[in-house]
Amino acid sequence: MGVLRHYRELLPITDKTPDVNLEEGMTPLIPLPRVSKRLGINLYGKFEGCNPSGSFKDRGMVLAVAKALEDGKRAVICASTGNTSASAAAYAASQGIPCFVLLPAGKVALGKLAQALMYGAKVIAVKGNFDRALELAREGAEKTGCAMVNSVNPYRLIGQRSGAWEICDVLGKAPDWHAIPVGNAGNISAYWAGYNEYKKLGKIDRLPRMMGFQADGAAPLVYNKPCPNPETVATAIRIGNPVSAHLARAAVSESGGEFNAVTDAQILEAQRVLAAEGGVFAEPASCAPLAGLMKLKTEGRLPEGITVTMILTGNGLKDPDTAMSQVGKPIEINDTLDDLMRVLGE
Ligand SMILES: *Cc1c(COP(=O)(O)O)cnc(C)c1O
Fold first, then answer.
1. DSSP 54-121
2. Residues enclosing ligand 1, CB less than 6 A?
3. What ligand 1 atom has the least distance to the C-alpha of 189?
4. 267 alpha carbon to ligand 1 midpoint, in Å?
5. Interatomic CA distance for residues 136 and 181, integer angstroms
6. pLDDT tens profile 4-56
7. Is the pLDDT confidence value at 108 over 90?
8. 314: CA distance to ligand 1 center in Å?
């Protein structure tokens, strides 16, 4: 049905808003019994990798592109660590409008780059980091009148509220903790707004604690200062100066939550645990929350028996290089039963 149709009455949709739809949203809230047991909690992963372009970005992009068209814009532009560009390119393609994407050169996961190019976007590799690419995209948008579809576009965050609504619709309540990776800090802010809206509407009676997780090499919200040279294997959250920092801080403090940092090694270990014990393959950035929960468990700071939803923001298939660097190679054999039995008997 897509986010615009499913939550039409909660979104700023008019009779003039085009019906943009790639069947985004309604992603599965996957119970993770083995990982839950390890942590002593009731853990669900909301697998945003099931969205049409493979990340949660589609929830807000569908509305941003629809409103851009409604406002008479005829092209979109964005800066991206990868997933925003994939999503913008997909929706622009579906509407037949040009899409320009600015990416930090050499720092975008292979699958995301392949997507943007396949969807037909004009892909521009900027020799600089994401934060600089974002400044350039903003200036470019101003000069050309292209619609800027980064999360500075308010419709992005409004569309992304739908994730919180879906969780509450499925659980019949809010979780105790909402664990989420934080990069530019839009998504944590959107979820908080979404939960609050549902509370106001009487659909839930209490709010979750918002637990935001950053990579240690790109943790401006944890350490409370911009990070001029962000570095992490989790490229989707390799951001040093989050645009929505103020909203994210408010979400965490109003909800009694916290920001926490996890190392790249912890992120990669969590990615393996999620795949090998959960059956879900999510990209590195998406695994920062699980890394954080595992860390809190070790520190004795994870309350027993609570219900936790973590947002698995993007699909693991987007970044095969990082995954392959962490796992063994296939076992090669000659095409004989003897060789096969040697392996099976091991
Ligand atoms: C964009 C993105 C994030 C970060 O979301 P913000 O809204 O920028 O905090 C995390 N994980 C993935 C996979 C992303 O694509």
1. SBTHHHHHHHHHHHHHHTT---EEEE-SSHHHHHHHHHHHHHT--EEEEEETT-S-HHHHHHHHHTT-
2. 55, 57, 83, 151, 181-187, 236-237, 283, 285-286, 313-314
3. 7
4. 14
5. 25
6. 999 999 999 999 999 999 999 999 999 999 999 999 999 999 999 999 999 99
7. no
8. 8
